[in-house]
Design brief:
- By secondary structure, this protein is an alpha+beta fold.
- It is built from four helices and ten strands.
- The strands form two sheets. It has a five-stranded mixed sheet. Strands 2-3-4-6-5 form a five-stranded mixed sheet.
- α2 packs parallel to α3.
């Protein structure tokens, strides 16, 4: 089973929204092999995240000894080729649930009793489910629909952006959680319904941070939220029938797919750490200027 790593660039900035307790902007762009025209644009992911809180809960809410986390994911109207609605749909609510699951293992919630924190994620540009012309309702050769692949990369980016924003807000955490995604890809021309090399279908390969628009036949996709210091997975989500890919080695295939998704999450963590380090330096510099005497401030600014 071959293993490939996409040539991607990641941008992560924190502290961009002064009115919020914490904020982050995450951008991921991978050069697409089919991006030679206006219609086939490069794969890109742009997400903003704001954190509001922790703040006291209303009196009407029952007492809770732990911090109550609420995540909200919304696609901008222009985030994809197909115009989104103003009201959250089922896929956006589903993404929010997965983000909450990934973040609950990150927070030290017992330090904030009867408090709540809201994590608001806005997807400015999202991954497409497939090449141009694939509407999400098309059925491939083995009878499975080509829909929802882009959501996996969006979830990975949401987890990373939310972790950066929560850390920027100064909320106590056990570690940094980063998102990673890996996909099991079939060859471009896959004859018939066969899924195995011994059946004449070619060799499957694992791709980290896949671009759905570059792969017309994805066999499976796995997303994880990973805490590197604790070596824990706080969230794992797979799509497609893993057991049907290789009846004899389905457990091994799943294990390799998860391992590659964890490796992708570790790569995203490097960007996360660097962004938070830069933000810490900026905050420390501002604090030093604020506490310095007036004459020292003038000298520093000069």
């Amino acid at each position: 089973m071959l293993h490939g790593l996409a040539n991607i660039s990641q941008v992560l900035k924190t502290g961009l929204t002064p009115s919020a307790s914490g904020s982050a902007y995450f951008e991921l762009e991978s050069p697409s092999a089919t991006a030679n025209s206006f219609l086939n644009r490069p794969s890109s992911l742009k997400i903003t995240c704001t954190v509001h809180g922790p703040r006291p809960l209303p009196r009407s809410v029952p007492f809770s000894p732990h911090l109550l986390l609420s995540a909200n994911v919304k696609f901008a109207l222009f985030a994809s080729r197909h115009r989104r609605g103003y009201i959250r749909d089922a896929s956006e609510r589903d993404l929010a649930i997965h983000v909450e699951t990934a973040l609950r293992g990150l927070l030290i919630s017992e330090r904030w009793p009867k408090s709540g924190v809201d994590v608001i994620l806005t997807v400015l540009e999202g991954e497409e489910d497939g090449p141009l012309g694939v509407t999400g309702n098309e059925v491939r050769g083995d009878g499975e629909r080509l829909s929802g692949w882009g959501m996996m990369s969006v979830l990975s980016g949401c987890i990373t952006a939310a972790s950066a924003a929560i850390t920027d807000a100064g909320i106590d955490c056990v570690d940094l959680v980063s998102g990673g995604v890996a996909a099991l890809v079939r060859p471009p021309k896959y004859p018939g319904k066969s899924r195995h090399k011994e059946n004449g279908g070619g060799e499957l390969r694992i791709v980290q941070d896949p671009c759905p628009s570059d792969h017309q036949d994805l066999a499976a996709v796995c997303v994880v939220g990973y805490l590197r210091s604790r070596d824990e997975v706080t969230e794992i989500w797979t799509r497609d029938n893993i057991a049907g890919i290789s009846p004899q080695h389905d457990a091994l295939v799943l294990e390799r797919l998860v391992d590659k998704a964890v490796e992708a999450a570790m790569s995203s963590r490097l960007v996360l750490e660097e962004a938070l380090r830069e933000n810490a330096v900026v905050k420390l510099h501002r604090k030093t200027l604020a506490e310095a005497p007036v004459g020292a401030k003038a000298t520093e600014s000069a």
